[in-house]
Amino acid sequence: MRFADVLPERSQPSEYFSPAAMPRKDSFLELERLIGLKEVKRTLAEVTAFSLVQNKRTQLQLKAYPSVLHMVFKGNPGTGKTTVARILGRIFNDIGILSKGHLVEVERADLVGEYIGHTAQKTREMLKKSMGGIMFIDEAYSLNQGGERDFGKEAISTIVKSMVDSRDNLVVILAGYSSETERFLKSNPGLRSRFPIHIDFADYDGEQLFQIALQIYSERDYEISNRCRWKLKKHLNDFVKNRHPHSGNARYVRNLVEKSIRLQALRIIDIDNPSRRDLVLIEDMDLPEPSGMS
């Protein structure tokens, strides 16, 4: 799926997604190569197109509206939130929105201090590291779970102030489970308006997980036999039927692939002068049983 393919049909002929207007750089190609995430790609296409159009309007001395790009990523673990954020930073750098485009991942422990004044200091340090890129706050709702005397609220206030003061060169993304994130935003009415872009990351279905597995094997110069292919498909379909929110989605698949590669290595280690086929082929016996992945 190409980046432009997820745009509404009426927008696809637009020159803004032609090679001349939208650089065909690695960041865009990397986003296109991600399995699934159709709605995520659609939203990011809209955001990117809007930003580019505002630049064109400025060049022609038309009224342009500032791009407020702070976002909320909602979804279960392993649905691609961190991966997309990292690529998004590079895209925003490529089109001139962010000066660096790097990603700084933070959690409560990186922001909340142990005494008065410590939290603001820690939070400002992380904001300084994030400037020119994206601050990605994982499980952001943990900042609001310590009661009235908790320093988490101070971290939130410090971040919100920087979001306003540095909106031209900083993007803040709140990430976490959908229900917890929604409760967090409702608990602070002023916070929701600061994050105009909300993106839901759906769980992958069995076929998408299978394609992700094939992609990982290919990236590592491995192939799977027909028997392994059948077993892997069944394994992932069963996983989808029985999974819970903490199951891991693509993270589970990556762990499964890595486990199978280790088991293959154990199987062939005693072969004298292994052939290329021996070294690249993953057999059905190399694929761990579901009980071995818990």
Secondary-structure blueprint of this entry?
Elements: H1 26-33, H2 38-59, E1 71-75, H3 81-94, E2 103-106, H4 108-111, H5 118-130, E3 134-138, H6 152-165, E4 171-176, H7 178-187, H8 189-192, E5 197-201, H9 206-219, E6 223-224, H10 226-242, H11 250-268, H12 276-280, E7 281-282
Parallel strand pairs: 1-4, 1-5, 2-3, 3-4, 6-7
Structure explained in plain terms:
The protein has 294 residues and is α/β, with parallel strands linked by helices. The protein has two domains: 3-201, Rossmann fold (3-Layer(aba) Sandwich), CATH 3.40.50.300; 206-293, Helicase, Ruva Protein, domain 3, CATH 1.10.8.60. It is built from twelve helices and seven strands. The protein has helices at residues 26-33, 38-59, 81-94, 108-111, 118-130, 152-165, 178-187, 189-192, 206-219, 226-242, 250-268, 276-280; strands at 71-75, 103-106, 134-138, 171-176, 197-201, 223-224, 281-282. It has a five-stranded parallel β-sheet with strand order 2-3-4-1-5. Strands 6-7 form a two-stranded parallel ribbon. α1 (26-33) packs antiparallel against α3 (81-94), α5 runs parallel beside α6 and α9 crosses α10. The radius of gyration is 22 Å and the shape is globular.
Task: Write a compact overview of the structure shown.
With 294 residues, this protein is α/β, with parallel strands linked by helices. It is 49% helix and 10% strand.
Give descriptors for this structure:
294 residues, Helicase, Ruva Protein, domain 3, alpha/beta, two-stranded parallel sheet, globular
